[in-house]
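Board notes (copied after class):
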Amino acid sequence: MTDPAFPFIALNPYPDYDAAAMVERSREFAAWLDKRRTVRDYDPEPVPREVIESCIRAAGTAPSGANRQPWHFVAVSDPTTKSKIREAAEVEERAFYDGRAPQAWLDALAPLGTDSNKPFLEVAPWLIAVFLEKQGIDAERRTIKNYYSPESVGIAVGFLLGALHNAGLATLTHTPSPMGFLRDILQRPKNERAYLLIVTGKPAPDTQVPDIQRKPLTDIATFVETKSST
């Protein structure tokens, strides 16, 4: 972990965009992210490890409580390991669809066409297992408390999904429950728990996705602004 007695340094200056440039850049970025979709059909074409490394580096720039950076990413391309993950995940998925999930949840999923079969866990070139560190380990191998770990890891995952999309890769966030098998298969320490499994690669040429719509801005945002005097 980072030494908590880190010095303060000068902030590198941000680009000095004028208002028009900021508006344009923000619109372009929002439009680009709006093209991101959850994909379940993948092309097995390999993706260079360097791409995944850079995207994980981007995820590692996310803010975190007390700068603890309570995350660990395990990127898997090995076919044998991916097969083990699929086998274990489908055990939990079958239990979910065959009785563990309430009917209301199954009804909500029905329009998306999901089921317990998860072939993408073997077909996609990369799986990225995201682990949350419940406690950190310092340089002297002592346990230290982490703060706001779920929130911090959630933000890092958002950065990672955006970075993968920016690299031209499709993604799927997979959360079989429980996910303890990921820690066992990937041999992670006991201070970590599986948080999320990200499937990524190029979409298959014939991929189709549900024709869903995002909520409009008026439904997801409220602005409290200074009222102009007249």
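Comment from the instructor: Residues 41-202 form a domain with the NADH Oxidase fold (CATH 3.40.109.10). Residues 50 and 56 are 10 Å apart (CA to CA).
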